């Protein structure tokens, strides 16, 4: 999972998450958990898009995600990244001194929408219809 997470190119959503939190006087440590979840989900999507056994044209001439673990693991690892992102968010709400459960739930709902049929999945479906 480590290899595929850090094989994905950087993206601006995680830093924007931290900056937006700081802009509204939020706690940076809580924003880091949300930013980490965002990046994990970006990496999972990127990995699925660049699996070596898909027929879709590759945006780069050389493979970026091949890990050498075989296609079974290359397909399953990104599927494990998404729940790990949710775990990072839930771990953020473990501190009993801070009542963050409502905010964590709202972030999870928005991430689920962004990853689901109204977001990344729909985009992947639309891309797949072209090929």
UniProtKB/TrEMBL annotation:
Xref: PANTHER family: FARNESYL DIPHOSPHATE SYNTHASE, HETERODIMERIC GERANYLGERANYL PYROPHOSPHATE SYNTHASE SMALL SUBUNIT, CHLOROPLASTIC-LIKE
Signal peptide: none
SUPFAM superfamilies: Terpenoid synthases
Lineage per the UniProt record: Eukaryota, Viridiplantae, Streptophyta, Embryophyta, Tracheophyta
Species: Morus notabilis
Molecular-function annotations in GO: metal ion binding; prenyltransferase activity
Cofactor dependency: Mg(2+)
Membrane-spanning residues: none
Keyword Endoplasmic reticulum: no
Keyword Lipid biosynthesis: no
Keyword line: Magnesium, Metal-binding
Protein name as catalogued: Geranylgeranyl pyrophosphate synthase
InterPro entries, per the entry: Isoprenoid_synthase_dom_sf
